[in-house]
Amino acid sequence: MSQTIKLALLDDYQNVALRMADWERLRKRGVEITVFNQPFASIDDAAQKLAPFQIVQMLRERTAFPRSLIEKLPNLKFLALTGARAMSLDDKAATARGIPISNTPGGGSNASTAELCWALLMACARDLAKADRLVRAGGWHDGIRNMVVLEGKRLGVIGLGKLGARVAGYAKAFGMEVVAWSQNLTEEKAAQGGAKLVTKDELLATSDFITIHLVLSDRTRGLIGASDLAKMKKSAMLINTSRGPIVDEAALIAALKNGTIAHAGLDVYDREPLPAGHALTKLDNVTLVPHLGYVVEESYRHFHEGTVTNIEAWLDGKPINVINPEALKKG
């Protein structure tokens, strides 16, 4: 391909993408790179700004790529997806257009998300976000409500896969009792993951902390609703580093307002970035962080270096890591 190829790197909020890989390899092959470091205002805004580009790199699920956007990008020829999958990408629409999607599988440990989950849990247990705000404002102890030691408490893990099991291991190291539930979890798998299998209702009713580690799907969307939150202890704290829609957001806001549960620690939301003035930002019994689970240098380097390699392979006419091989037959 001798003509200039335009590549868009999306959602580089921290302005780090260009130092995370050797992009010069692509520039030498006539690829012109443009970085977008702000979210798009709408699908129409994204369509207008991305219309000239043949290649788009999606940074996980930050910008959604539904059919309505894909159909408005006449020049799009290749999608570079960071991570293994993105529920917000309509791969069928891309396939229908003959647009291959190459991902960056692997990436090593899930420690970054597990560690963030544990940091959120500890911050909630001791009201650390509020404590930080107090000290900066000239205050001291007044207003701090959470004074919970982890040792001896029960952690309920919803979803005991590799990530949930890693968090369960952290809990054991802190002297906590760990129980777990998910739709297909067995006693044997629970034991292997360092937990005791219980029913969903028992987990909700008896856990001091509850942490969610499930993939968002039709089966898990809205899995934790108002009736589930009502079963939890009033002193319980809920941690979500998976996906926002697994928990009914309106029900969670109501539960926090009404004191149904004591506190929540959230890294994920129904809409991201979380809009200014959102109801969650007005509550002082929730600790909020901006979807930082995978936001570490090791992950970024894997994503961006993998993108360079995937684009090189596509330019050579031999695409790799293609998750929709049917598109190659149409291209």
From TrEMBL:
Claim: DNA damage is one of the keywords in the record: no
Amino-acid biosynthesis found in the keyword field: yes
Residues covered by the D-isomer specific 2-hydroxyacid dehydrogenase NAD-binding domain: 119-293
Keywords: Amino-acid biosynthesis, NAD, Oxidoreductase
Signal peptide: none
Molecular function terms, GO-annotated: NAD binding; oxidoreductase activity, acting on the CH-OH group of donors, NAD or NADP as acceptor
Residue ranges occupied by any D-isomer specific 2-hydroxyacid dehydrogenase catalytic domain in the UniProt entry: 19-324
Gene3D superfamilies: NAD(P)-binding Rossmann-like Domain (3.40.50.720)
Superkingdom: Bacteria
Gene Ontology biological-process entries: amino acid biosynthetic process
Entries under PROSITE patterns matching the protein: D_2_HYDROXYACID_DH_1, D_2_HYDROXYACID_DH_3
Transmembrane segments: none
Family membership: Belongs to the D-isomer specific 2-hydroxyacid dehydrogenase family.
Alphabetized PANTHER family for the sequence: D-ISOMER SPECIFIC 2-HYDROXYACID DEHYDROGENASE FAMILY PROTEIN (AFU_ORTHOLOGUE AFUA_6G10090)
Name of the featured protein: Phosphoglycerate dehydrogenase
Species: Enhydrobacter aerosaccus
Organism classification: Bacteria, Pseudomonadati, Pseudomonadota, Alphaproteobacteria, Hyphomicrobiales
